[in-house]
Design goal:
The protein is an alpha+beta fold. The protein has a single domain, classed as Orthogonal Bundle (Arc Repressor Mutant, subunit A), CATH 1.10.10. The protein is built from four helices and three strands, in the order αβααββα. The protein has helices spanning 12-23, 28-38, 47-59, 82-107; strands spanning 26-27, 63-70, 73-80.
């Protein structure tokens, strides 16, 4: 059975949330579904992972939220701020650098 959240996933929820919210505002469960969808179900993060990251990003000014009535209930929608877009750019650059290094190591194991 595959491990749902391996240790090397640290930082990935933040990157995925900022990337998805950079396109449009979304609410928590919508983000959970979207992460599964955009990663072809390779990554599945539950609400217990998503909401603490959303709250942390909001506290540090990377996200803003607004309450919106939908079908007789209220949903909290999140969107990226300027600070969040800057954070996303940094995380994407870091991820590309790490991805390049890992790919290099995997393709040339004899050089390690």
């Amino acid at each position: 059975m595959a491990q749902s959240n391996p240790p090397f996933m640290s930082g990935v929820p933040e990157l995925l949330l900022l990337r998805l919210l950079n396109d449009r505002e979304m609410y928590g469960y919508e983000l959970v579904r979207s992460i599964r969808e955009v990663t072809s179900e390779a990554i599945s993060l539950g609400e217990g992972v998503i909401y603490p990251v959303l709250h942390s990003l909001e506290r540090n000014g990377s996200l803003k939220s607004r309450r919106k009535p939908v079908g007789g209930r209220t949903r909290v929608y999140y969107s990226v701020t300027r600070k969040g877009r800057e954070r996303l750019e940094k995380l994407q650059n870091d991820w590309q650098r790490i991805q390049t290094g890992i790919t290099s190591a995997l393709e040339s194991p004899g050089n390690a």
